[in-house]
């Protein structure tokens, strides 16, 4: 391998190793934090209290999300209806143009 390519290869593999090590370290830290939070919420009295306080808010959020999802579905249906109407209009206009073009004057 050419010396320039060797140097580039070493630089790239070293950077990849550093990035992989960082990703693993970050994953371990995030996993530890999530585990600690779950342990606190599920295995302490204070955590139980916090969960009980959050339950109504989570349920309300779930309900609002379901309503939002239905609204988005309705908007999608309306958009499809609009596209269908435009396509039908364009098809009718094309048919009308073809009909007029096929008529001959006497």
Write the SSE topology.
Blueprint: H1 3-43, H2 45-102
Helix pairs in contact: 1-2
Explain this structure.
It is a single chain. With 106 residues, this protein is an all-alpha fold. The protein folds into two domains: 1-43; 45-101. It has two helices and no strands. The chain has helices at residues 3-43, 45-102. The longest helix is centred in the last third of the chain and has 58 residues, at 45-102. The radius of gyration is 32 Å and the shape is flat.
Structure described in brief:
By secondary structure, the protein is mainly α. It is built from two helices and no strands.
The fraction of residues in strands falls at: under 5%
Regions with pLDDT < 50 over 5+ consecutive residues? none
Largest sheet: none
Our count of helices gives 2
SSE class: mainly alpha
Number of domains: 2
- The number of distinct β-strands equals 0
- Distance separating the two termini: 84 Å
Gyration radius (Cα, Å) is 32 Å
Look at the structure and give the mean pLDDT: 86
What overall geometry do the principal axes of the alpha carbons give? flat
Helix and strand sequence: HH
Helix content: over 70%
List key phrases describing it.
106 residues; single chain; 2 domains; mainly alpha; flat
